[in-house]
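Entry: NIDO domain-containing protein
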Amino acid sequence: MQPYYYFVTYCTDVGDIDFNRLAPHPPLVPTPQPITGTTASFPAGVFYPFGPGDSYTHRYDDDNTYVPLPQPFRYFRQTFSWLYVSNNGFLAFDYGWYSWSPHQFPAYAQHYNNIIAPFWTDIDNTRRGNISYQQYTNGSVLQQATTDINQYFPGLSFSASWVFVATWDKVEYYEKSGTETSFQVVLISGGNRSFTLMNYGAIASTRHLVQVSRPHMQKSHK
């Protein structure tokens, strides 16, 4: 049976106020190397390019990788100059979050962490699969992003100036040896606009909790 492939697109620049957030930066560390022979092959146009030239996250269970951004990403009413790639299937902006168990949004808003979650669940990349990311400020990937956004949101005359691609390629679930799940999140910026694409390949069945969303988790004030 042929697998199904899906994508989801969001506009993430709602609001007209930017706040430059400051937070301590962890030290940069050497880039881990991928496990060879695990690059997935997907139909053209489903996943953005990944593999060659990518940086790879560490092979530690529940780990996060800090990534500085060459230009700020506008996420609702805030702008961020860094993000964290979680091995458990999400991006975090305020700080690295090590939770392996997803929470239903916005139930844990008191933690105050802006998150984009293409597939937040208990993933173990210590033995199988690769988790990689790459940023683009020129070339064919920007052209692809520009074309996609103008197709999904006609009338914007959008032009991408920056693209971030994070890919979870054939990763397995924790204590579920042999499972393979592949998905991708793409952040796109240009001018005052920003967008998020979520691309899905083959997703293995699981009894683990899964959260798929892109909430703006905001702390309440009294």
